[in-house]
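Morning run. Coffee first, then this:
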Amino acid sequence: MRSALYVPGNRPDLFDKAVAGPADVILIDLEDSVPLADKESARAEVGDWLRGFPGPARGIWVRINPGELGRADLNAVAQPAVTAICLAKTESAQQVRQISTLLDEHGRRAAEIRLCALLESAAALFAAREIAAAPRIARLQLGEADLRADAGISPGPDEREMLYARSHVVLASAAAGIDAPLAPVSTDFTDLAALRHSTKALARLGFRGRACIHPNQVPIVNEIFTPSATELARARAVIERFEAAQGGVVLDAEGRMVDLAVIRQARRLLR
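And here it is:
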């Protein structure tokens, strides 16, 4: 999964348009993008749309509210069309276990639904390892706007102030054996050159997909997280050399030594 496009839950006119677009996942939001006065009507609209959705041809995720609002959201959206539920403001593995138990109560209808935990505070960041290992967790996502406000971080143009938080979430995911995390959104959807630059940096850091808030961001994110034909050919070639050597010393086409770590990276790329 390379891209996840947020769609406000109170804009049902956008749901089908988003599904028809290039995003790998449509992430319907019942939290921050929906005013409090619209929470109930948005929840009903999303539930009705999901019941009529033919899926699972497309990835449909839903971000639910924390607390009691989230419980009501969960009851409405625990539908077969949903592949994952995003848990806003996750700060502990216990929160994840509670949601997982509620999904269990929905039986077969929700059996395949996974969870994506949004880490949006300092407390969440320090609990990332335990959250990543909690039931049903498929991915973590870093909510940087809230984290910055919580920690008093004011990043500069290169955003190096966020390096620790980003690396920590990548490493927590790897340690738990789950998919690489979803990179944070870029709120400036008009500066696509900056989006390209920052997405490349996040890919180098170990992220393998990015959340988007505007359709124009999706093609760039998809491009960056899609291996090129040259990269794929190089990965296949180095694996063939390694397997043919049957444990001996192997050099790649450029004369560099190949060890098991290089092969693991190549196999990850092909997957």
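The longest strand covers residues 3-8. Good start to the day.
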